Amino acid sequence: MTRETTVVRIAMNGVTGRMGHRQHLLRSILALREQGGLDLGDGTVLWPEPILLGRRAHALREIAERHGLEHVSTDLDAVLADPSVDIYFDAQVTAAREGAIRKAIAAGKHIYTEKPTATGLDGALELARLAREKGVRHGVVQDKLFLPGLRKLKRLVDGGFFGRILSVRGEFGYWVFEGDWQDAQRPSWNYRAQDGGGIVVDMFPHWEYVLHELFGRVTSVQALTATHIPRRWDEHGKPYDATADDAAYGVFELDGGAIAQINSSWAVRVNRDELVEFQVDGTEGSAVAGLRNCRVQHRGTTPKPVWNPDIPATEAFRAQWQEVPDNGEFDNGFKAQWELFLRHVYADAPYRWDLLAGARGVQLAELGLKSAAEGRRIAVPEITL
pTM for this structure? Predict the structure, then answer.
């Protein structure tokens, strides 16, 4: 078969940030180039050609020189006006994303973006409507669905391992240094509400698609938020007031009757096997899944614990669980989703993680914050265009 190479020019906005640089540029787009491009299976090989876009020209040039790339720009409008640019990707700070995506849609570019897609539901839905009306392809990063641990968990769900699913318990987080005596692991804007920060805005969109895809649509939310660390130090060593929530404790009702409880915190020290873990309990079995691993305990092998606080524990409970095998190879989750989106654009492959799916995540974050502010459970209505 004759192989034909198709160059795909991708405007990548926000590659100087942690996620945009490490996961999307290095471990996705450049990794695709290192493997010789993306083979569509019909003789066509897609060759991604990134255009590094951002506000800091010197940082963009340094990244480009380090990786042998040619194209950098600080002019969004000029890049979008270039007819050779096929795809616009956005990994900017949340507050800047909606306006840039609007411009990209108007310019007729296919859209691939980090989440949340907008700062509010109205804006997120409007982006989805505009993309549909313009006829461009669009996708939202929902990377946790592609983690090995959650792919194993999905395999168990699809195979009926759990029977009737009763509950999901999630624990996510780690201690983000305040920035005074050790540098913080996250940018300071994450802790300023006025800059679009907050753990609800950041993590509830993740929990929406994880719950939706694996267990059922979220039908109600009840959340309690906190700013446990009220004072932090920024990238220049200057103190600032943390105005955004750094922890959220959520209860979610799911379509079908299961209940999910997920704690999210940037002020918790890790005492679990991975930075995020989900325990799923069902009538026929249970599982605990993290980023990479997944362990199960079936109904037939469930021990009989007996509560007795007067004697030491007589069982090693963790040892009673069985590891779920890989049974396949798992590529980087961000790269795997990039490949699916590129196949969607250039080979018409199915793709369901679009801007409407992204709007559901924005909706859950918005209603989670409302629930916390009003101290009540709030229904999550189904949204359509």
Answer: 0.95
